[in-house]
Amino acid sequence: MRRLSRVVATVTAVMAIGVSAACGGDNPAPSAAPSPAPSSASSSSVEPTIPPIPKPARRPSKAGAAAFVRHWVAVLNYAGATGDTKALRRLSTNDCIKCAALWNGIDNIYAGGGRIEGGGWTVLETKQFGPTRNRYFVDATIKSDEQSLTQSSGATPTAFPGVAKRLRAFVLRPVESGWLVAELDPTA
After folding, report:
1. Which of 32, 96, 150, 188 is most buried by a 10 A CB count?
2. CA distance 168 to 121
3. What is the enclosing helix (H) or strand (E) of 46?
4. Residue 47's pLDDT band (boundaries 50, 70, 90)?
5. DSSP 20
6. What's the CATH number where 83 sits?
7. Cβ-contact 53, 72 below 8 angstroms
8. Is 41 within the bounds of a domain?
């Protein structure tokens, strides 16, 4: 079970920075993260909030599919920053294997006292296809920020470089409330 947790956490780290082997290209190697600078008591931080779903992301159209992918990415960023994966789970089907690897990895890291800092995705552009067999397909060009991942309480943080552009493929299933991610980076 412990090995599975490590594997899922590693998948989360790799997915969060957008460098999986399925996308091709060279994968930057992680390195030990520098020790964080002490924070001053006067510095203020704003707690992230769950991004509300925009109206366009509920529409059963190509534009709606693109808006939903942007929303899903915003919710993924929220989950990584807070450890709260409930909203991400609601936006994905239960049989989306890579989605489950993401939320399970995030859950395991935070349950073990770890944390994820940075690594947020930004959708640079999208290209939509469909519908085909009641599915829409969205190719999203994603930029990911540098990330520091601490697997558990007391563990040494691991740094992952950001990635300027990485293609992510989303398969969406339309539902009454809008959309669900049915697959992330499906294999051919």
Report:
1. 96
2. 11
3. none
4. confident
5. -
6. 3.10.450.540
7. no
8. no
Query: Is residue 128 in a domain?
Result: yes
Whether the link from the prior residue into 131 is cis, omega within 30° of 0, is yes
Please tell me whether the overall predicted TM-score, pTM, comes out greater than 0.90 for this model. Answer: no
Structure confidence by residue, pLDDT tens digits, 70-108: 999 999 999 999 999 999 999 999 999 999 999 999 999
For residue 182, give the H/E element and its range. Answer: strand 178-184
- Give residue-wise pLDDT tens across range 108-134: 999 999 999 999 999 999 999 999 999
Cβ pair 30, 13 in contact under 8 A: yes
Tokens matching residue 33: 């993260």
Residue 116 corresponds to which amino acid? I
Distance CA 81, CA 109 (A): 11
Range of the domain at 70: 2-19+54-184
